[in-house]
Amino acid sequence: MDDNEKELSGEESLMIIQQMINTAKHEQKDDGKEWIVWGWMLFLASILTVINLHYRWLDLFFFWNIFGLVTLVYLVISIIKSRFVKKAVRVKTYTRSLFDKLNAGFFICIMFNVAAINLGVGPAKGFALLIGLYGFWVLIYGTALDFKPSVIASFVTWALGFIALFQTDFEVVMLLHAAAVLCGYIIPGHIANKEFKKLRGGKTNQSSGV
Description:
mainly alpha; globular
């Protein structure tokens, strides 16, 4: 062993292992905020599109174009932050690494779907397929984090997507899309946020000796 290297004591080794475990546990607890934000954005875009279909105020896809623009800005900001903003050093768990790759794959699949809609698949069928993609991602999330509300929500989302697949009325598909993100994103997101706050509150009380 190099003379410059300091041999860790048993107690120090246990402390390091405990810190790694705590970091992993913290990373695997989702506060649900992103699900809530994206869910409400998708929900509003769906409902506003339904209203627009009735009153014909704007172009059919106006609100979805706005959603796409906001998404693009968000992705650019996220990339800039990840490259230029210094972050605290943390243990990268298998779950975090998995989600990073799956997030990239999920957005690529969405781009394929959007391209298909523009190339002639049709908005009704295209959005029905999107609902199916939501269900798949929600199932992966719920399974990876052992979060049952998301696992249950994935099957509800798939059921709504399956119904949407047989609809020709775009307004009905938009209502089913709104219901899908409500069940798949918004409700599980709020449940996750509530559990996260409860867990964090419990840790705060323990640290303060309550």
